[in-house]
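haha ok so turns out i had the wrong file open the whole time. this is the CORRECT one, sorry everyone. sequence first:
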Amino acid sequence: MYNFNKQYQAAQPLQGKNKLLWRSLQHVFFAIGLGLFLLLVLLPEVGVVAFWNILIPVAPLLFLLSTGFWRNVCPLASVALIPHHWKFSKKRRIPLVWHGRLALASVVLLFLIVPARHLVLNNDGLATAITLAVLGTMAFVGGLFFDVKSAWCSSLCHVHPVEKLYGQKVGFTPQNAHCGTCHNCVLPCPDSMPSIAEQKPKERNTQAIATTLLTGGLPGFIWGWFHVPDCRSTGAEMSECLVAFGLPWATMAVTLAVYFLLRKFLPKNKETLLTSVFAAASISCYYWYRIPSLVGYGLFPQDGLLVDLTQTLPLWSIMAAQVAAVAFFGWWLVLRNPEPTVWAIRPPFEVRRK
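then structure:
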């Protein structure tokens, strides 16, 4: 059992060189995010490659290794926390029932945005920029009305569910670089929980549904998504829309059904292992298809292409990289058994709430 009291006693606010380092990193990543946004608007062909084929492929691996690092430097998190840091947030507390509803909405948002990539976002820099602007506005408004991370980072952010799934056994736990003191804005705090399986309080059934939907459905969703080609016409036809959304959702339903069956018949004490297996299946499936697509060996060679290396790298080397990735993720999430840890070290409490 994880000793949270030990974590609380050891936590200290950021100060000195450590604080300067994290503030510098936050400004650097915010500048990178702003630069990508401007690229998407001013040089859309470059922007879509930089955003979708460089930044996004790195993100799942970063969540796996150190979710807390990304939580500390995420540009959208910085936007969401501007009202808090500049002291004009209204700091309302989100009711438990609404926290659960927002958690479910974040999963739905994820399953809507990702299929839309095939229809428009993967090849349209301006559309991607508009999407980011809308998400940034949602993050800012959430921070304007609600306390610290409660509205966006820990509730409505569509990346947060994936962080929870992949961040079960992080290798590096930094200090929480956004929260000088803990306001108990969300209970339980996702930055200070060692496992996705821990985040199922009975009073938030919608949050439990969100966790189940993501855990069981994500492997199939990813598999189906990679079997849909990008639409390169100026306007997507109805049939293309049906395929773009229908195939990932259908294959998501298949793995979700398998997950339900396994969870029903396996002993209760195997649920955490089952979650780890499905998390490993999700990230393995992602990189199994993403690695070859980056270098021109994808199912649809021009989709997701970063640089064409088909005349340089032999096919066997790509297959070796795929196998190595699957082996690593299986070991990291399923076979490896580290001491339970958290994403980020919680700072001292400002107000203790039950």
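The CA atoms of residues 220 and 251 lie 5 Å apart.
again sry for the mixup
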